[in-house]
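Hi there,

I know you've been waiting on this one. I reran it after we fixed the sequence typo, so this is the corrected version. Both the input and the resulting structure follow.
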Amino acid sequence: MTQYILLAVGAVFLTVVAGMLVPEGKLNKAITFVLRSACIFILITPLFGLFEINLDDGEDVIIDYGYVCEVYSENQSRLLEDMIAENTGVKCACTVEIIYEDGAFKENGVNIVTDTVEDGLIWDIVSYLRELGYININVNEKTY
């Protein structure tokens, strides 16, 4: 607290001295504005401590990467179903496999199930997914 008070007093003193030494004119207004802004910033600095959130409280943070992969996979699967329907006009069920590896989430494969599988349609879907950067693409016909 003593350091804060000394810093605030020093900033105010510096502003007053600079205001007396700098000649009148545009330069005086600019320097005075900058110094006053610095004083205000120094004076309100303790308020920033009220909003500080400290996540490192000495406890180990446990992240369930399996759950994150599952949620990410579900969202990517729904998005991919919509994109395929928009691009090819085919309704399908997609499953995008997401894994956590080497500190990053990665796509590991795509499984697509549709009602009708034709050679041209399979090629359209596979080429579209390859353009998007997907790997390990499997397109299957729905079995009843």
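Quick highlight: The chain is about 55% helix and 20% strand.

Best,
R. S.
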